[in-house]
Q: What sequence folds into this?
């Protein structure tokens, strides 16, 4: 009957207590404890991207929390080519402004990090780096609104057609 079939099924607790070795028990319990404390829902306040010699970012969508005071952008160029031939940066703008800012960036040149100076459409931008280099920058989280449409892209000439993605604010 149903009673006897229930008793044959080991309870999850019994599995953890009796049949899992102690170190593994810690790995199983830790995520449960984080879930219970709410720590697993901590704000994500950083955008970390890798760029390569094939003119690509490793992600097409990044997500940040609306409550972030400060948002950090981390860029790692994991290729080998120098900045003058395969330089990359990360620029954040509204989706509406992205193409115009990318085109204006070409005029600024490598010396200007391919970003128009003092342009209010630029929410954030890193410097341009070459292969093997990393760079970071920060900006105020209040510049991004929940439900707004934002993009990240590399503004090096020609790169922004491939090197771009969405910034989602949750
Ligand atoms: Co690029």
A:
């Amino acid at each position: 009957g149903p009673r006897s079939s229930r008793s044959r099924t080991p309870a999850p607790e019994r599995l953890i207590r009796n049949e899992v070795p102690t170190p593994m028990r810690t790995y199983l319990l830790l995520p449960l404890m984080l879930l219970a404390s709410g720590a697993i829902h901590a704000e994500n306040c950083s955008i970390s991207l890798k760029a390569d010699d094939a003119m690509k970012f490793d992600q097409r969508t990044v997500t940040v929390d609306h409550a972030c005071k400060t948002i950090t952008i981390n860029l790692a160029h994991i290729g080998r080519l120098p900045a003058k031939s395969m330089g990359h940066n990360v620029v954040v703008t509204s989706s509406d402004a992205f193409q115009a800012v990318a085109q204006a960036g070409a005029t600024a040149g490598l010396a200007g990090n391919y970003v128009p100076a003092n342009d209010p459409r630029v929410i954030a931008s890193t410097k341009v780096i070459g292969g093997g280099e990393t760079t970071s920058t920060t900006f105020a989280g209040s510049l991004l609104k929940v439900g707004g449409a934002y993009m990240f892209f590399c503004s090096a000439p020609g790169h922004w057609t491939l090197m771009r993605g969405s910034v989602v604010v949750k």
